[in-house]
Amino acid sequence: MKKQSCLIIAGEKSGEEHALSFLNELKRASPDTEFFGVGGDEMKQAGVELLYHLNDFSSWGYSEVITKIPFYFKAMNTIVDEVKKRGTKTAILIDFQSFNLKLAGKLKEIGVEVLYYVAPQAWAWKEYRVKKLARTVHTLFTIIPFEKKWFHDRGVKKVISIDHPLWTTYKSDLESFKKDIELKTPLQLLLLPGSRKFEVEKLLPIFIDSLRALKKEFPVKVSIVKSNSVPSELYDSYKNEFDIEYTNENLTAALKKADFAMAASGTVTLTCALYEVPTVVCYKTSLLNQYIYETVVSYRWFISLANIVQNRLVFPELLQDQVSVHNIVSYLKNWYYNKTAHSELSAKLSQTKSLVRGEDILIPEYMAEVIKNSYGKKVDTTV
């Protein structure tokens, strides 16, 4: 008799972090289940048998994805074959939309119950994907406030709103955290130029020129969060500009001290909002990616998670050529000199914590019940 098993796919580092938020408790709730699939070193350490490492899966931008299409097709076929071989009945697919949505369809065809963790942003583009979700997914887990109703209204029967992973990560700290909105002297300015090489290459020189311009206006103390995944030489030529250097692991310590920040667009912008740090969000990509985005994607709303969660403009967003010293400095000077603007922004940011909370449901126990049900051990999973 084949052992009880569950496929889990985390094709990016962020997906692995999502998995780690429930994996250990899920293993305790379902001790007879073997977990296998795609993930990183931490998932492997947690007992997941890796068919592929996430380093082989992750890519950035349309141009890089296109070159890896043959690999993705081969990997998908290998994964489906392994599911058949093991007689697996349940799969947990985490984000990684383009790959996981196709995989969900193939798994549904062979009778696998699919738990899709972190809904694809179909509200931003490719709304037709909702129909596929409705056909193939047992349960869809959403992390942005408006998503549950949005997906349910479009035919996805079982949708669960969960705590945003950042809330899960920082909950114990944020529950007791209170931001002092009084600006310090000198002003504490934090640079968050990104966790990818191309982001730091494009944004850090502009951030440095911006802080130099600010120093002509008022005293500034500068800190930076350096990513371990970015070559150190990209930071080295500016090291005399930094008063304090932090690593990713010390992000919250940096945010607690910061008055203002400049940040690459990404998950970190929501962390800035949770810690109530006024932030100028910047995004620059290749001309090819920009062309594809402007040609293919119809979405023309917010790009930063902080603004998407709030469903309004909280942080200014500078895109492509808008990322300039003049624009960055203009926003920061306005917050510094205009106490009303700074106060109003701080009030908006203080509401972020309440917006990233999900339903009162134990996700690992729910997943464990779906696994049991898929093997004929019927348990009620009514939401």
Q: Can you walk me through this structure?
A:
It is a single chain. With 383 residues, this protein is α/β, with parallel strands linked by helices. Helices cover 47% and strands 17% of the residues. It is built from 20 helices and 13 strands. The strands form two sheets. The chain has a seven-stranded parallel sheet, with helices on both faces. The protein is elongated. The protein starts with a strand and ends in a 9-residue tail after the last helix. 41% of the residues are buried. The mean pLDDT is 90.
Nutshell version of this structure?
The protein has helices at residues 13-20, 23-29, 41-45, 54-57, 61-67, 69-86, 97-109, 129-136, 147-153, 165-174, 197-215, 233-236, 251-257, 267-274, 287-296, 305-310, 325-337, 339-349, 352-355, 363-374, and strands spanning 5-10, 34-39, 49-53, 90-94, 113-117, 139-142, 159-161, 187-192, 220-226, 244-247, 260-264, 279-283, 317-319. With 383 residues, it is of the alpha/beta class.
Features:
single chain, 383 residues, Rossmann fold, 2 domains, seven-stranded parallel beta sheet, six-stranded parallel beta sheet, 47% helix, 17% strand
Low-confidence sequence ranges? none
CATH class of the largest domain: Alpha Beta
Tell me the radius of gyration. Answer: 22 Å
Work out the number of β strands.
13
Anisotropy-based shape: elongated
Q: Which class of secondary structure composition applies to the elements? A: alpha/beta
Largest sheet: 7 strands, parallel
Number of domains: 2
Name the helicity range: 40-55%
Name given to the CATH architecture of the largest domain: 3-Layer(aba) Sandwich
